[in-house]
Amino acid sequence: ARVHSNVTSLNDVNDYSKPADLYKDKLLGGLLAAGFDEDSCLSRYQSFLYRKTAPHKPSPYLLSKLRNYEDLHIRCGPHTRSYNKMVEQLKSGHSTGSTDCQYVVWISFSGLGNRILTLASAFLYALLTNRVLLVDRGKDMDDLFCEPFPEKSWFLPLDFPITDQFNDFNHESPQCHGNMLKKNIINTSTESLPSYLYLHLIHDYQDHDKLFFCDGDQGILGKVPWLIMKTDNYFVPSLFLIPSFEHELSKLFPEKETVFHLLGRYLFHPSNHVWGLITRYYQAYLAKADERIGIQIRIFDTGTGPFQYVIDQILACTQKEKLLPKVDTQESVVTPADNPKLKVVLMTSLNSGYFENFRNMYWEHPTVTGDVVGVYQPSHEEFQQTEKKLHNRKAWAEMYLLSLTDMLVTSSWSTFGYVAQGLGGLKPWILMKPENQTAPDPPCQRAMSMEPCFHAPPFYDCKAKKGIDTGALVPHVRHCEDMSWGLKVV
Ligand code: GDP
Q1: Among 57, 178, 385, 471, which residue's CB has the most CB atoms within a 10 Å radius?
Q2: Percent helix, strand and coil across the chain, each rounded to 5?
Q3: Closest residue (by CA) to atom 3 of ligand 1?
Q4: Of 376, 401, 381, which is closest to residue 391 (Cα–Cα)?
């Protein structure tokens, strides 16, 4: 069920032949809990209207785990009796061993794509360790997303005692888990543990920080009620390599590559103003298309662009993979096709040059198939900006719009693209990274799975205490297509 021009609200789909199926669809196969106030978050129960029915169903075990998590969150969430008690313990500095409620606090850090991936990683970690996830709202988290859990907020209360230290936490902080291990202040036999630890999981993390991914250290962390986490990486692939999580993960996700896809659809509901950006754009430019092709362009080279070698690369990729028709540069007269299709390209980029080039090409020349190609780009913000509300709203809307396309082309290394592919359940064609300003050959490669890539994984064998290729241990955790040292779940 997708919104085409005549279906714009849930009321319009009352003529569904099987109401029970509609209800199931609306809750994404049981992924979403029923009973939320619909007006305060329109996207939660309307998203299914814009998507093809999801072929990737959540496992019954994942569903029961999510419902249990929701109960836990209600019992331990902000300002509950348990929460207040645990905050007192935090202030006292020492863990009393009471495991009534335990928490993982996610610190808002890095670009929006990164934040969405790390939040999903932190939530999975919370599910695996029976912790409650609380979210530092940073500058704009509450502007961009709806509350995902019933009754109790996922946001860390504003009066949380150590929020003012979040910015300064780094791998040398006295409360840093890795730093404490390095200085041997804590180890696997330490009796008296602190009431909180800071987990430094940013790409610059050190060997001791990486012990987070070892079973022995998970044993220590299990006794610490508050874990405060700062990360810019999708660290899920390495959770699959921790033996004590292995069994649980295989029950939660029998189809392994659906981790971000399912958790993402569960957690990330655009707030009402972002939903407005998404639905207005979709209805104006995408709804009537026979085929929607998303092209996400993110250039990490210096200089402003547009670069001719990138234009060449996108063209080579979309034509070689038959995502878009070739144009006939000789003929200006169209031979009408029997059944011409309307193909709509949704381009996203900080720069408008690529879009102008493609739009002009398909306007100035006919396609050899007779199909018509419309090219649209919602914004061109020129450079990455932080702390500007509309900028990040647009970025989120664009990731979401890309996820509504039928075929997706993404840029190497970009978490912006990973979010789109994961939410959409799409295996993208990845534009390989140009070297020395030259388009690579082949220009793009089909992704093995829809999962994001972990850009800075550890290469450590916790048992043997030596380096190891963590991309060669199990068949379902491999090196990424776009980053040879990265890891992804396939
Ligand atoms: P990454 O750097 O590609 O991994 O993605 P992030 O989302 O973490 O950071 C890039 C940031 O730059 C985004 O959050 C946006 O603020 C901005 N940005 C990058 N590409 C685009 C784009 O195509 N459209 C918009 N609106 N913003 C973009």
Answers
A1: 178
A2: 40, 15, 45
A3: 414
A4: 381
Q: Which atom of ligand 1 is nearest to the CA of 297?
A: 23
Out of 1.10.10.10, 3.40.50.970, 3.30.420.40, 3.40.50.11350, the CATH code matching 272-489 is: 3.40.50.11350
Write the residue with the smallest CA distance to atom 26 of ligand 1.
Answer: 395
Supply the ipTM of this predicted assembly.
Answer: 0.99
C-alpha span between 297 and 411 (Å, rounded): 6
Burial of 184 (0-12, 13-18, 19+ CB in 10 A): exposed
Q: Indicate which residue's Cα is closest to atom 25 of ligand 1.
A: 395
- What whole-number distance in Å separates Cα of residue 290 and Cα of residue 279? 18
Which of 416, 430, 453, 455, when mutated, tests ligand 1's pocket best, judged by the most ligand atoms within 8 Å of its CB? 416
Residue 352 CA, ligand 1 centroid: distance in Å = 14
Cα–chain center distance at 157: 24
The full length of the chain comes to 490
Tokens of 469: 């290729």
Distance 421 CA to ligand 1 centre (A): 14
pTM, two decimals, is: 0.95
| Nearest atom of ligand 1 to the alpha carbon of 395 | 26
Nearest atom in ligand 1 to the alpha carbon of residue 232 is: 8
Q: What is the pLDDT along the chain (490 residues), one digit of tens a residue?
A: 344 433 444 434 333 344 455 555 899 999 999 999 999 999 999 999 999 877 899 999 999 999 999 999 999 999 999 999 999 999 998 887 767 899 999 999 999 999 999 999 999 999 999 999 999 999 999 999 999 999 999 999 999 999 999 999 999 999 999 999 999 999 878 888 999 999 999 999 999 999 999 999 999 999 999 999 999 999 999 999 999 999 999 999 999 999 999 999 999 999 999 999 999 999 999 999 999 999 999 999 888 789 999 999 999 999 999 999 999 988 766 667 788 999 999 999 999 999 999 999 999 999 999 999 999 999 998 888 776 789 999 999 999 999 999 999 999 999 999 999 999 999 999 999 998 888 899 999 999 999 999 999 999 999 999 999 999 999 999 999 999 999 999 9
User: Which of 347, 384, 391, 400 to mutate to test ligand 1, by most ligand atoms within 8 A of the CB atom?
Assistant: 384
Secondary structure class of 68 (helix, strand, coil)? helix
Ligand 1 contacts (CB < 6 A) are: 110-114, 298, 348-350, 379, 381, 384, 391-392, 394-395, 398, 414-416
Please report, for the chain, the start and end positions of each structural domain, with discontinuous segments joined by +.
10-50, 60-252, 272-489
